[in-house]
TrEMBL record:
Source species, domain of life: Bacteria
Taxonomic lineage of the native organism: Bacteria, Thermotogati, Deinococcota, Deinococci, Deinococcales
Keyword flag Isomerase: yes
Gene3D superfamilies (alphabetical): Phosphoglycerate mutase-like
Keywords: Isomerase
EC number: 5.4.2.12
Identification of the protein by name: Histidine phosphatase family protein
Keyword Isomerase (UniProt): yes
Length: 208
C-alpha cells in the first residue's frame, strides 16, 4: 500500500490580498513562517519511516518544504509539474472573480480554464505525471504544492470531475493544510483532506 502526503504552502502576502497569479518568488509572510514551522512539527511527530520531501519550484512552496525537511533531517527535492496553475490573463484579478465572472473562465475552445493559461485537467495531468517519479524509491513522499493544483490533482486521483470539484470547493486547502492519501491496487483513498488541526495554536500575533 502506498502512502502520500500533499501539503499546501504556508501563507503569503498574495494570499492575504486574495489576488490570483502570485509570481514564482512570492515569499511566506510572518504568519506563513509560523505555519510552516507548525506543519513541520506535525510531520516530525508522525514518526514517518524514510520520509522524502518534494516541493514545487515556487519560493513559497520551497520555504514550506524546507521547514519540514529541517524538522525531519532530510533534504528537499524540487519537483517540476506540481507548481500552481498558470492563470494567464487573469493574473492580478481577485479570487472573487472565480465566482462572479465564472462565465469568462473558458479557453477559446470552450473548455474550462484560465484564458491564456491552464485548465484544471491540464494541471491535474502534469501533477499526476510528476507524482509517478516520487514512487520510484522507498519511503513516504511529502509533496508541497499549491491550492488550485492540489484541487485539480485530488479530483483526478479520487475520480471526481475536476470542474465539479472546483465548483463545489470539495478539495479546497487552506494555507499549510495537509492531505493524506493511501493507494491499494492502483486505487487512491483519502484518509484526511485539507487538515489544519496542527495550526490550532498558530495566530496572527507578533512574535517577540
Amino acid at each position: 500500500m502506498s502512502r502520500l502526503f500533499l501539503v499546501r504552502h504556508a501563507r503569503t502576502a498574495s494570499n492575504v490580498a486574495q489576488t490570483l497569479g502570485a509570481g514564482h518568488d512570492d515569499p511566506l509572510d510572518p504568519l506563513g513562517e509560523r505555519q510552516a514551522r507548525a506543519v513541520a512539527a506535525h510531520f516530525a511527530a508522525l514518526g514517518l519511516s524514510a520520509p522524502r520531501i518534494y516541493a514545487s519550484p515556487y519560493r513559497r512552496a520551497r520555504q514550506t518544504a524546507e521547514a519540514i525537511a529541517s524538522a525531519l533531517g532530510m533534504p528537499v527535492t524540487t519537483l517540476d509539474g506540481v507548481q500552481e496553475i498558470h492563470t494567464g490573463t487573469w493574473a492580478g484579478r481577485p479570487y472573487s472573480h472565480l465566482h462572479t465572472h465564472v462565465h469568462e473562465w473558458r479557453h477559446e475552445d470552450g473548455t474550462p480554464g484560465f484564458p491564456g493559461g491552464e485548465s484544471l485537467r491540464a494541471v491535474a495531468q502534469r501533477f499526476q505525471t510528476a507524482l509517478e517519479s516520487v514512487f520510484e524509491g522507498e519511503g513516504t513522499p511529502i509533496v508541497v504544492s499549491h491550492g488550485a493544483a492540489l484541487s485539480a490533482v485530488l479530483a483526478l486521483l479520487l475520480q471526481v470531475p475536476p470542474e465539479e470539484a472546483w465548483r463545489e470547493g470539495r478539495f479546497t486547502h487552506g494555507n499549510a493544510a495537509v492531505t493524506e492519501l493511501l493507494a491499494e491496487q492502483g486505487q487512491w483513498y483519502a484518509r484526511r483532506v485539507a487538515d489544519t488541526a496542527h495550526l490550532v495554536t498558530v495566530s496572527e500575533r507578533t512574535e517577540t
